[in-house]
Amino acid sequence: MGMPGDANLDDSCDVSDLSLLAGSYRQSGNWLQGDFNFDGNVDVSDLSLLAGTFRTSNPYFAPGSGGSPVPEPVTLVLLGLGGLGLVARRRAVEDLRELCAV
Length: 102
Known about the structure:
Elements: E1 12-13, H1 15-23, E2 27-28, E3 41-42, H2 44-53, E4 56-57, H3 73-101
Antiparallel strand pairs: 1-4, 2-3
Helix pairs in contact: 2-3
């Protein structure tokens, strides 16, 4: 597989990869759905791996690049807050489904 966080295998880790992970968050999945640690589940561990490579590209496949940029700390904080928002939203939806089923 590609670098951790590159769900769509385009040799860069960006918002499209985050979107794929978010679509499968707290569900079972594979690499293409955001399971970067191969445990069969898309969860906060996978989000952490994505955050570590967010806004970078694979230097082995990017022509002319001598390395990959390091994400700014603010970016990582925003990713973390976004992840918490996803968790809260998912829980709210599950609670709403339980209330409607009763």
